[in-house]
C-alpha cells in the first residue's frame, strides 16, 4: 500500500495479518493493539488514514484491544433486565449491585468485617475527600486504599468533579479543567482530567471514573451540548493519562442533562429532576449502550428507583441514602421507612424488620438468574404500596420494561400494561429524543 | 448469685481473687465492669462486643438513670427486661445509679426525697420508689441501692446527712424489692471522713445484702486520702461478700483498689480515653514489661497511651500494640486511625473502644494471675516503678 508517511508509520505498527476466514472470502484481519496511552479518537483517525491509503478494497474488521481489568458476563435476563457476574481485580461481584458510599475511606460506623457480613461487594470512595485528607500520595505510599482501610473486596472512586461543583462555591469549569478554591487555604487550584486520573491511580480502586463536565439536570440550552462534547474530549484525556489499565478500569461518564444522549455511566440524574424524566433518560441510555458492558447509574438511591432502573437494564448503583438516612434515625424496611425517632416508636416493642435477611441487590440478582424477576418486582411493589397506589411513573417504566404489574395497581391512573414477554420498543427520533 | 473468695494474697495483703456466679455465668475477680450508655457500650455494637474476651466482657455496668428519658419502664418490662431489650441475654448487668459521664451525682440538689443527678436532659431527682420500680422493670443481675454521694469538700454536717440518707434509702430499697433482695448491693458512702466511712460500712454490713458498692470516690479527694479511706471501708466489710468501687479507673488506682480488697471496678476510663483519641499501650504483664524496658514511647504520649491524633502517626503502618489480638490491632494500622480521627469518622471511636477495652481486660487478667501466683505485691510494685522510671527519664 502506498500513501502518506502517516500511513507508512501505521503499516509498520500493524502486525502480520492472520488470514482468518470470514464468510466466503479469506479476509485479512488486522489485530490492532494500541497501548493505553493512545486515545480512541487517535486510533480511529490513524486507521481511517490507513484505510484510505489502500488501493484495493477488502472487508475490514477492526478490533481494538484495550486490556481490561474487568469481565462482565450476563447470567440471566428478563427483557431488558440482566443479572451478571462482574469480575474485578479485587472481587467478583454480582449485579445488579448497590455500592454504599464510603466517602473518607470508611462506611460511617461500620467495620470491614461487618460490611462483608452484610454482603457488601464494592464501596465507593470520594476522590475529592481522600485527596484532601489523607492525600492520594500518602495512600499510594502506604500501598493503596484497599490496604489503607483493609478492605479486601472491590472499590470504586469517582473523579472528584461532582464534589467540586456541589461543595465549592467558586468552582469554574473551563476546557482545561475545574478551577476551584482549595477549602484548606483558599488557594486557587485546578483539577484537570489528567490530575483526576493521577489521583485515582494513586488511590488504586478497581474502577475509576473519568472527569466529566458536570451540569445540573435542570439546566437547559447550549450549555448541555457544550458539556457533552467537552466530556467526550476529557474522556480521551483521561484514557491517555491512565497509568494502570491492567488493574484499574476506567468508566466514562456521559452527561447531557435530560436530553437523552449517549451515556455509559449515567450521571447527572440524582437531584431535582422529576421521576417521569428520570426513568425515560435511564431507559434511553440503557437502550443505546453496549450490552456487554456494565451500566452504572450514579446517585440512585431509593429501593424503588433501583428496582425500576434494574428492570430497564441498569447494573450498578451508588447513593448516600442508606447511610445518611440511618444517621437521621430512619430504618429501611420492606414496607418503606421507619422513622425511629418519632414518639410513637418509644413504646413500640416490635422488631425493626422480622423478615430481615432482605438484601435488595442480592435478591434482584438471584431473581433474575432464577427466572422469577417479574414476581420479585410484583412482590416488592405490593409490600411498598399495600394500598395499590403505585406511582404512575413506575407503571410507565414497567411498561417499557415489559413487566406486568397490573395486580399491584388499584389506581386507575396507571397505564394499562402490555402483555408480558413483548417488551415495548421505545422509539427514538433523529435527535435522540424520546417522545411522550 | 454466688460469690466466693478463692485466694487471698499472703503476707497480710488484702488483695484477693474470687469467683462470681450470676445467671449461670461464672467470672473471676478482680474484674472490670464495662461502662455503658443506655445499656450498651458507647460505640461498640452488640456483634462487635461478642468479639471481646470472654467471659470478662460479659460484665456491664448499667446506669438506671440513663433510662429516665425513655424508653418507659413499662415498655422495658413488657419486652422482658433489659437483657431482652438490649439483645444481651448472656451478659451480667450490674446496675448502680450515677456515672461520670451522663449521670453525675448532684449533691447540692439531692434532698430528703431523693438523689439528684445531672443528665444530658437536665437535673433529675430520683426517689427510692421510682428507682426500685425502674430496677424491677429492668431486671438487672445485680443492683445497688440509691445513695447520696457527696464530694470530698462537703461539710461534716452534709457528710453525716449523706450517710444517714444512704442507709435509710438502702432499707427502703430492700423493703420495696424483697423479691430480689439477694441481688442487692448496699452502697457505702462517708466522704472524706474516716469515721463516717467506718460507720457507714459497719451499718451496711448489718443489712441483708449480697455485696457492697463503695461509692463517693472520684469526687475530689486526693490519692493519699483515698487510700486510707478505702482501706478503712474494706476493713469493716465482711470478707466473704462482693465489693465494688466506682470511678477508680487509672491503672494505679485499680491496683490500689485491688490491694485494698476490692473485687469489681466500674469506671469510665476507657470511654474517656476513646473520646480523646487515645489508645492504651502500656505493657500488661511482667513479660511484656521486660520487652519494653529501656524502650519508651515517643513524645506523643507516655508509656500508658498514645494519642493517635498526633501527626507522627500519619504514615505509621504498625499496629496499636503488636501483641494485642483485638479486632483493631489485627486489622488496622495507626495511620488509618489517625486518618479517621482527622476526618471525624465515628469508626475511629469504635475501633479505639474495642482496643482499649481489650487491652484493659488483659490488664485485669494479669492482675488475677499475679494474685493467683501469690505475686500481686511484686506485680504492683514493678508496674508503678516502671511508670515512674519513664517519668524520671522524661524529666532528665
Write a concise keyword list for the protein shown above.
heterodimer; A: 436 residues; alpha/beta; TIM Barrel; 5-stranded parallel sheet; 4-stranded parallel sheet; 15 helices; 21 strands; disordered N terminus; B: 396 residues; 2 domains; 14 helices; 16 strands; metal ion binding (chain A); metal-binding (chain A); TGT (chain A); EC 2.4.2.64 (chain A)
Beta-sheet strand percentage of chain B? 15-25%
Mean pLDDT of chain A: 76
The major sheet of chain B is characterized as:
8 strands, parallel, barrel
* CATH homologous superfamily designation of the largest domain in chain B: Queuine tRNA-ribosyltransferase-like
- Strands across the major sheet of chain A, in which order? 8-19-18-17-16
Per the CATH scheme, the topology name of the largest domain in chain B is TIM Barrel
Average of pLDDT of chain B: 90
Number of strands of chain B: 16
Q: Which spans of chain A of ≥5 residues are poorly predicted at pLDDT below 50?
A: 1-39, 53-67, 256-264, 415-436
CATH architecture of the largest domain in chain B: Alpha-Beta Barrel
Q: Which structural class do the helices and strands of chain B define? A: alpha/beta
The separation of the N and C termini of chain B measures: 52 Å
What does this structure look like?
The complex is a heterodimer of chains A (436) and B (396). Chain A has 436 residues and is of the alpha/beta class. Chain A has helices at 5-13, 40-52, 112-117, 127-132, 136-141, 145-149, 161-167, 193-203, 222-241, 275-288, 303-311, 321-327, 360-369, 373-384, 392-401, and strands at residues 20-22, 25-27, 31-32, 63-64, 71-78, 81-87, 92-95, 97-100, 122-125, 154-157, 172-173, 178-181, 188-191, 207-209, 249-251, 253-254, 265-266, 296-297, 316-319, 330-333, 336-339. Chain A has a five-stranded parallel beta sheet with strand order 8-19-18-17-16. Chain A has a four-stranded parallel beta sheet with strand order 9-10-14-15. The model of chain B is unreliable at 294-300 (pLDDT under 50). In chain B, strands 4-5-6-10-11-12-13-14 form an eight-stranded parallel barrel, surrounded by four helices. A three-stranded antiparallel beta sheet of chain B has the order 1-2-3. Chain B has a three-stranded antiparallel beta sheet with strand order 7-8-9. Chain B is globular, with a radius of gyration of 21 Å. In chain B, helix 1 (46-49) links the parallel strand 4 and strand 5. At the A-B interface, helix 3 of A face helix 2, helix 12 and helix 13 of B.
Amino acid at each position: 500500500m502506498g500513501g502518506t508517511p502517516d500511513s507508512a508509520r501505521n503499516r509498520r505498527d500493524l502486525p502480520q495479518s492472520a488470514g482468518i476466514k470470514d464468510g466466503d472470502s479469506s479476509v485479512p484481519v488486522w489485530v490492532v493493539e494500541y497501548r493505553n496511552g493512545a486515545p480512541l479518537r487517535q486510533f480511529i483517525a490513524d486507521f481511517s488514514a490507513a484505510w484510505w491509503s489502500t488501493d484495493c478494497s477488502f472487508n475490514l474488521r477492526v478490533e481494538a484491544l484495550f486490556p481490561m481489568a474487568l469481565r462482565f458476563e450476563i447470567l440471566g435476563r428478563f427483557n431488558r433486565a440482566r443479572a451478571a457476574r462482574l469480575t474485578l481485580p479485587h472481587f467478583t461481584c454480582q449485579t445488579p449491585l448497590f455500592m454504599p458510599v464510603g466517602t473518607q475511606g470508611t462506611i460511617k460506623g461500620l467495620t470491614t468485617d461487618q460490611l462483608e457480613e452484610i454482603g457488601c461487594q464494592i464501596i465507593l470512595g470520594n476522590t475529592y475527600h481522600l485527596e484532601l485528607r489523607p492525600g492520594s500520595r500518602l495512600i499510594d505510599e502506604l500501598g493503596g486504599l484497599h490496604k489503607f482501610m483493609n478492605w479486601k473486596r472491590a472499590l470504586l472512586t469517582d473523579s472528584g468533579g461532582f464534589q467540586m461543583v456541589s461543595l465549592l462555591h467558586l468552582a469554574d469549569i473551563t476546557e482545561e479543567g475545574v478551577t476551584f478554591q482549595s477549602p484548606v487555604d483558599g488557594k486557587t487550584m485546578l483539577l484537570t482530567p489528567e490530575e483526576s486520573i493521577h489521583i485515582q491511580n494513586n488511590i488504586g480502586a478497581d474502577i475509576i471514573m473519568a472527569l466529566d463536565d458536570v451540569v445540573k439536570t435542570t439546566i437547559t440550552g447550549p450549555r448541555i451540548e457544550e458539556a457533552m462534547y467537552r466530556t467526550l474530549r476529557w474522556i480521551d484525556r483521561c484514557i491517555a493519562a491512565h497509568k494502570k489499565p491492567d488493574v484499574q478500569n476506567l468508566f466514562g461518564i456521559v452527561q447531557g442533562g435530560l436530553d437523552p444522549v449517549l451515556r455509559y455511566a449515567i450521571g447527572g440524574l440524582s437531584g431535582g429532576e422529576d421521576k417521569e424524566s428520570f426513568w425515560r433518560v435511564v431507559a434511553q441510555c440503557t437502550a443505546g449502550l453496549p450490552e456487554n458492558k456494565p451500566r452504572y447509574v450514579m446517585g440512585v438511591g431509593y429501593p424503588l428507583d433501583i428496582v425500576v432502573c434494574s428492570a430497564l437494564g441498569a447494573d450498578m448503583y451508588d447513593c448516600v441514602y442508606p447511610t445518611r438516612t440511618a444517621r437521621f434515625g430512619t430504618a429501611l424496611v420492606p414496607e418503606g421507612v421507619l422513622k425511629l425517632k418519632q414518639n410513637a416508636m418509644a413504646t413500640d416493642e416490635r422488631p425493626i424488620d422480622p423478615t430481615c435477611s432482605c438484601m435488595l441487590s442480592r435478591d434482584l440478582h438471584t431473581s433474575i438468574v432464577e427466572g422469577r424477576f417479574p414476581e420479585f418486582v410484583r412482590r416488592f411493589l405490593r409490600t411498598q404500596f399495600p394500598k395499590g397506589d403505585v406511582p404512575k411513573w413506575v407503571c410507565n417504566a414497567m411498561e417499557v420494561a415489559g413487566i406486568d404489574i397490573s395486580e399491584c395497581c388499584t389506581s386507575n391512573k396507571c397505564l394499562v400494561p402490555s402483555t408480558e414477554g413483548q417488551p415495548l420498543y421505545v422509539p427514538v427520533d433523529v435527535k435522540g429524543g424520546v417522545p411522550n | 448469685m454466688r460469690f466466693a473468695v478463692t485466694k487471698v494474697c499472703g503476707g497480710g495483703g488484702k488483695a484477693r481473687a474470687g469467683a462470681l456466679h450470676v445467671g449461670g455465668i461464672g467470672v473471676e475477680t478482680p474484674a472490670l465492669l464495662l461502662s455503658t450508655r443506655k445499656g450498651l457500650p458507647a460505640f461498640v455494637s452488640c456483634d462487635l462486643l461478642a468479639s471481646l474476651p470472654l467471659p470478662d466482657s460479659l460484665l456491664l455496668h448499667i446506669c438506671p438513670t440513663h433510662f429516665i428519658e425513655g424508653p418507659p419502664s413499662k415498655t422495658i418490662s413488657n419486652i422482658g427486661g433489659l437483657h431482652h431489650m438490649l439483645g444481651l441475654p448472656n451478659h451480667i448487668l450490674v446496675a448502680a445509679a450515677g456515672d461520670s459521664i451522663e449521670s453525675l451525682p448532684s449533691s447540692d440538689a439531692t434532698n430528703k426525697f431523693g438523689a439528684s443527678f445531672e443528665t444530658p436532659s437536665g437535673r433529675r431527682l430520683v426517689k427510692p420508689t421510682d428507682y426500685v420500680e425502674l430496677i424491677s422493670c429492668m431486671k438487672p443481675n445485680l443492683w445497688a441501692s440509691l445513695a447520696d454521694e457527696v464530694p470530698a469538700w462537703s461539710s461534716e454536717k452534709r457528710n453525716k446527712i449523706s450517710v444517714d440518707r444512704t442507709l435509710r434509702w438502702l432499707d427502703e430499697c430492700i423493703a420495696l424489692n424483697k423479691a430480689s433482695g439477694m441481688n442487692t448491693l448496699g452502697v457505702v458512702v462517708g466522704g472524706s471522713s474516716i469515721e463516717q466511712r467506718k460507720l457507714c460500712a459497719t451499718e451496711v454490713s448489718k443489712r441483708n445484702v449480697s455485696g457492697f458498692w463503695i461509692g463517693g470516690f472520684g469526687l475530689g479527694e486526693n490519692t493519699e486520702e483515698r487510700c486510707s479511706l478505702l482501706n478503712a471501708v474494706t476493713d469493716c466489710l465482711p470478707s466473704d461478700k462482693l465489693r465494688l468501687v466506682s470511678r477508680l479507673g487509672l491503672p494505679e488506682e485499680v491496683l490500689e483498689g485491688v490491694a485494698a480488697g476490692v473485687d469489681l471496678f466500674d469506671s469510665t476510663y476507657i470511654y474517656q480515653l476513646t473520646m480523646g483519641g487515645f489508645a492504651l499501650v502500656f505493657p500488661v504483664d511482667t513479660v511484656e514489661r521486660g520487652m519494653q524496658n529501656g524502650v519508651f514511647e515517643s513524645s506523643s504520649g507516655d508509656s500508658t497511651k498514645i494519642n493517635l491524633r498526633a501527626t507522627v502517626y500519619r504514615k505509621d503502618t504498625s499496629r496499636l500494640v503488636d501483641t494485642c489480638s483485638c479486632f483493631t490491632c489485627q486489622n488496622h494500622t495507626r495511620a488509618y486511625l489517625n486518618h479517621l480521627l482527622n476526618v471525624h469518622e465515628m469508626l475511629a471511636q469504635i475501633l479505639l473502644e474495642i482496643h482499649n477495652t481489650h487491652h484493659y481486660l488483659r490488664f485485669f487478667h494479669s492482675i488475677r494471675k499475679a494474685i493467683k501466683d501469690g505475686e500481686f505485691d511484686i506485680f504492683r510494685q514493678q508496674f508503678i516503678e516502671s511508670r515512674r522510671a519513664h517519668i524520671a527519664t522524661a524529666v532528665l
